[in-house]
């Protein structure tokens, strides 16, 4: 099969790596890709939101399937564009419809969806600029800390956890009146703070059948011991030691099944991945948020654990035959450590040469996924983003996987490189 994968991050390099390893993959194209995908596929200089050019490319290159990595093209309706374009309507696209993508594209839509289908989540209310005073009054009536969420896409930065009423009031004004997150915060969801431990559960679905993929826990803050600013993710661990069989059974019964049935009942076409951000509160799952694609950096820890053919999984989703797919999972642990540019998530420099990537020789121990890289004029690998490299270590235990990850991290370097040294340490109490 000729396959086109959209995106340029660590998630997409992990997808490309997994797709390329399948005998079902013929030619693999990645638009726009990065230095890592360039080594295993053909990068194509087309933006993920240039639907017209992508459709033309699929026609010209006889593409048999398209896989959408990031959320932006999904929220902007790429799946509907392909379905409604006779030239490419026959190509299976892995990703939900624009209506389905609202589960991530609008926090308000997703909260209302959860309420309609009895899916456990935090109590919340949504406000706009016109109802600012009501929003402030609502804040005062809630306990602390309190969570403010920009309704739209804000590149993972639109969620604020406020410790005082003053901070919450100020932040609400900044979001609604000063458009702190642009259009994304024209509506703000004020939500009860859930106390517990977070994890992510990933679901593959073709709108009727589903398969639950390995779960993961990610580390969002820049500083060790979960301090400092939120980032797109500084590391991940899979499996999650506290997510035992009985907890995951509750997740399936209370969250996954009602979500899939709810989408079907509301006639929302949903083919693709669903990432459910959960809080484990005393053994009960509560949904923090939905995302309509795989997580990053969780993908880099989840995909190495999938044993069965990944192209088969994608194609069975895209062609609505997921009920026939047998998902097999490796028992080993995968741990991911993200290496970032100095200054991230604030201002950072690009264009620094990365050394030591070739020293990672054994893919059974560690894999370096490129997250924000590009190729220089002499073929050297340069930094091109905030999160630059995601190193995944593999092992029979979490400890062994972490040792392999950090061993590899210690070989890779560039000017002002930074990474957290405590990924997975909080989970040792469960071993």
UniProtKB/TrEMBL annotation:
It holds the Pfam family GARS_C. GO terms for molecular function: ATP binding; metal ion binding; phosphoribosylamine-glycine ligase activity. SUPFAM superfamilies: Glutathione synthetase ATP-binding domain-like, PreATP-grasp domain, Rudiment single hybrid motif. Residues 111-319 form the ATP-grasp domain. One of its GO terms (biological process) is 'de novo' IMP biosynthetic process. Pathway: Purine metabolism; IMP biosynthesis via de novo pathway; N(1)-(5-phospho-D-ribosyl)glycinamide from 5-phospho-alpha-D-ribose 1-diphosphate: step 2/2. SMART domains: GARS_A, GARS_C. Signal peptide: none annotated. It catalyses: 5-phospho-beta-D-ribosylamine + glycine + ATP = N(1)-(5-phospho-beta-D-ribosyl)glycinamide + ADP + phosphate + H(+). Keywords: ATP-binding, Ligase, Manganese, Metal-binding, Nucleotide-binding, Purine biosynthesis. Its EC number is 6.3.4.13. InterPro entries: ATP-grasp (IPR011761), ATP_grasp_subdomain_1 (IPR013815), PreATP-grasp_dom_sf (IPR016185), PRibGlycinamid_synth_ATP-grasp (IPR020561), PRibGlycinamide_synth (IPR000115), PRibGlycinamide_synth_C-dom (IPR020560), PRibGlycinamide_synth_C_sf (IPR037123), PRibGlycinamide_synth_N (IPR020562). Belongs to the GARS family. This is Phosphoribosylamine--glycine ligase. It comes from Mongoliitalea lutea.
């Amino acid at each position: 099969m000729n396959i086109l994968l959209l995106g340029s991050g660590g998630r997409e390099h992990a997808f490309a790596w997994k797709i390329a390893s399948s005998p079902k993959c013929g030619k693999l194209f990645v638009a726009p890709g990065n230095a890592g995908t360039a080594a295993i596929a053909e990068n194509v200089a087309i933006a993920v939101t240039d639907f017209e050019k992508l459709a033309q490319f699929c026609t010209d290159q006889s593409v048999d399937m398209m896989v959408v990595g990031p959320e932006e093209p999904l929220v902007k309706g790429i799946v509907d564009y392909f379905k409604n374009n006779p030239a490419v309507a026959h190509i299976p696209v892995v990703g939900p419809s624009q209506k389905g993508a609202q589960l991530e594209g609008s926090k308000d839509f997703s909260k209302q969806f959860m309420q309609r289908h009895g899916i456990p989540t935090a109590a919340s209310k949504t406000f706009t600029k016109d109802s600012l005073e009501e929003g402030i009054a609502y804040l005062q009536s809630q306990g602390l800390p309190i969570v403010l969420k920009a309704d739209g896409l804000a590149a993972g930065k639109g969620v604020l956890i406020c410790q005082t009423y003053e901070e919450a009031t100020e932040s609400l004004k900044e979001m609604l009146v000063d458009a702190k997150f642009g259009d994304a915060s024209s509506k703000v969801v004020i939500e009860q703070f859930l106390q517990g431990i977070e994890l992510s559960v990933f679901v593959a679905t073709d709108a009727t059948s589903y398969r639950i993929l390995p779960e993961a826990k990610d580390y969002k803050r820049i500083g060790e011991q979960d301090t400092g600013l939120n980032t797109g993710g500084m590391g991940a661990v899979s499996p999650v030691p506290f997510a035992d069989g009985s907890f995951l059974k509750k997740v399936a019964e209370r969250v996954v099944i009602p979500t899939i049935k709810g989408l079907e009942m509301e006639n929302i076409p949903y083919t693709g991945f669903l990432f459910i951000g959960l809080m484990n509160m005393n053994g009960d799952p509560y949904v923090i948020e939905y995302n309509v694609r795989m997580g990053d950096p969780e993908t880099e820890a989840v995909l190495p654990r999938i044993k069965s053919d990944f192209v088969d999984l994608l194609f069975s989703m895209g062609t609505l035959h997921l009920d026939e797919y047998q998902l097999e999972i490796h028992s080993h642990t995968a741990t991911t450590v993200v290496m970032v540019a100095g200054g991230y998530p604030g201002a950072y420099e690009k264009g620094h040469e990365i050394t030591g990537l070739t020293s990672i020789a054994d893919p059974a121990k560690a894999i370096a996924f490129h997250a924000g890289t590009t190729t220089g004029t002499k073929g050297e690998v340069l930094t091109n983003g905030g999160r630059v490299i995601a190193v995944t270590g593999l092992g029979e235990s979490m400890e062994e996987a972490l040792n392999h990850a950090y061993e590899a991290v210690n070989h890779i370097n560039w000017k002002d490189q930074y990474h957290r040294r405590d990924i997975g340490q909080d989970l040792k109490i469960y071993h």
